Structure prediction request, 463 residues.
Amino acid sequence: MDNQYARFGVVDTADHPFRVALNFDRIHQRLVDLGRDYMVPGGQLAIHHEGETRHYEFGQVRYGTGHPVTPASKIPIGSITKTFTAALALVLVSDGDLELDRPVRDYLPELRWTADLGADLTLRHLLSHTGGLPCEPDDVRTTSLRRHVLDACRTLDPLHGPGAGFSYSNIGYLLVGHLIEATTGMTWWEAIDSILLGPLDRTCHFVVGADADPSIASGHAVNLDSGRTRPVRQSLSVVDAPAGALACSALDLVALGRWLGGDGPPALLDPAALADMRTPVRRAEPFGMADGWGLGLAVFQRNGDTWVGHDGNGDGTSCHLRINPDDGTVVALTTNAGSGFALWRRLVAELRAAGLPVGDYDGFHRLERRIAPPPDCAGSYLNGSTEYEVRAVDRESLVLTVDGEPFADLSLFDGLVFAMCDSETGDTSQTGRFVRDSEDGGIAWIQIGGRLAKRRSPEPEIA
Prediction:
């Protein structure tokens, strides 16, 4: 093993040995091997289990520079930022400053004049992605989070009423960020730093904003076929910060995970709020992402075990957090390449083989019998400004385009679940589904990656 490429360490030790004998040598070796297989320039893996935290680092913070990834290196964690934002909101709930089931409009009177935003939309809906909000606003025209949220809420077309279903929404978390700012009188950046990271004794960096740190690791675009790796810039806008602006180390994520697993500063969250984060919300069905969703945490269930966590992708980064609340185990992986997602899927299998059955999502257990697509699968579906177009190729196959670009070939199975073959890479690891309307029985939505898109109404005919 190249010692320039791979590094490891142990940061704390309990007085008792592991009750489960994990093969850490195998884990370390396979991490390095998978990093090379998927051309990931650098990454970090941290595992807390039975009182001890082990960490492993490999590679470079930026391809070609020779600067090594260290335990302190900060990698953009993308949407895992949402877990930090949710935890901060629940600290305010624990302090009595916010209520989970009180209408958001009671705290933000300016929302009373926004179109189509349900009067009963609550913080619980926003944190569990059950508010019926689309994922992205049409565009960004301001650097003010308040103005951006108001503009988005004035023009959005809800996918369904609050609490009626699940659709992963960045807009929802920007609304949570605005609520945090209105409640604390701080910016989201200041509140994250002083209310959450300070008590956890962690220092994370920001990808955008006045406190953005240029020392964070670069993301990388990787082409496995050509063998090409190139650094990419983070394109996140300032107003999107509450949904994805943090850069952290794997050890930072383990610290967060230990706290959310019940091993952290008890004064921050009361037990009820902590339980709410880890408990699946009714009607939260994140098909294509997880088996359930709590308040800021995905829920993964496998062979009777329950894990919670979140995944996140920045521009050219892929990061993953898993927590087992029953035994306090936490696993965190950060990588500075888009191909790190494929590395993670392989690493999960390696961790299980080494004695650590980490929870992850498997949409393929629902694929039983292939069926011919019903005619009403075809059509146009909208999530905000994103258009999904489904077209029949023959009697057995469908093709999906997103905003007019080829996206995937679809093979349909019982329950209107489909397997996806990526049009560009040929990847077949993703699944989705069509969802029928409970009233008329027609197909009303398509759900991909946890995001719902609503069937587009036909244009009215002009007489």
Observations:
- Confidence is low (pLDDT under 50) at residues 13-19, 459-463.
